[in-house]
Amino acid sequence: MYFRTVRARHLWAPLVLAIAADATALTYQQALDNALASAPSLEATSAAIAAARQLEIPAGALPDPQLSLGINNLPIEGADRFSTSTDMMTMRQIGIMQAFPNRAKRMARAAVARHELAEREQEQELARIEAQTNTATAWLMLYHLNLQQQILDQWEEENQMLAQTVAARLNANQGLVTESVLPRQEAALLEERRDLLVRDAHHARAQLQQWLGELANQPLSGVPPTWQLATEKTLVEALERHPALHIYEPRSKKLAAELDEARADKRPDWAVEMMYGQRRAPMAEDMISVKFTVDLPIFGARRQDPRIAAKLAQQDQLSAEREVQARELAAILSAELANYQQLERAWQRQKAVLLPLSEEKVQLATSAWRANRLPLSELMAARRERLDAQLRLRELAAERDLAAALLHLSFQAPQLSHPATQGAPAHE
User: Across the strands, what pairs with 294?
Assistant: First the structure.
């Protein structure tokens, strides 16, 4: 009768082991630490920071000097054509030229590279938040799914005991013959709920693998932390320090440096070139020459001014985007706080009122059924209500923990450096 249920329990065995605390088990904090150490997205941002740091070195340097080689006044007609040793004017030349962009332009380029590096570092902070939040979500889902599985295990044992009681009552000519079907129906429903939990656990495990790789296959250990959340006022006041907003500071400075560079294009650059000329003709003397060149930015209306106007427009764009991000973060924070508060109240109500009432109803229904004053179908309905209440309590606990983790990791920890307190939360 119960072969399918027993088989499903064996399929679930690896997930049941997830709550065991052994040497290879994965705690909540270990999961977050490993996500920060090995997440591919963080490796990518680290490489971007290394690249930006290298590009900062040559950003404000002078261009490389240029070497020039050539022949001047080489005859191409007459008896001495293509000869470098007979014509008095023919010279073989070697020279070096150095360009000197104006100082304002070089300083602006160095500033662009410096703020580019700062922007990459802020992007890494955002990647850290994403890695921690997604890892915490997956770990917490697995943790609470394991607890829901334990509830189903207890119910399967109670279902088997009920089936034996019903069989004994029928052997004693008590009750209806159709009542023998009801425990089997309940067993099938329990198996169906288990299948849903297995599916959800696989989804959560896959998400955990995205951030931890093979480490995500380890069983879970320990309990979630107790998140000491700050007040709503404190979190709202600290929003300005959120990395998602703080990243606009280096972006704004980089854009200002690019604007300075565009304006510096209106100032002339210059270059100097020194040339040595060797003449091979008899009695001809070698020569040296020096040449200066200066840019003439006289078409600013069609060249430099449009670039300056574009950078000014981009500054307006960046300012508007920051305001959009600030309002979006404030809206998300407000919604998540309201969501957490509602879930906390719902969990308390489920624990203190609805679950005890469902248990009391089962007790009353069981006593009435044993006294032949209530049909088994109503007892089974009361049992289903209690199972729903127990699972709902676990679901609310999971949703509440996910909301608390999101608030802590996305809004509080990046700004206030207020760590969660490790310990057993109210998960009864």
Answer: 270
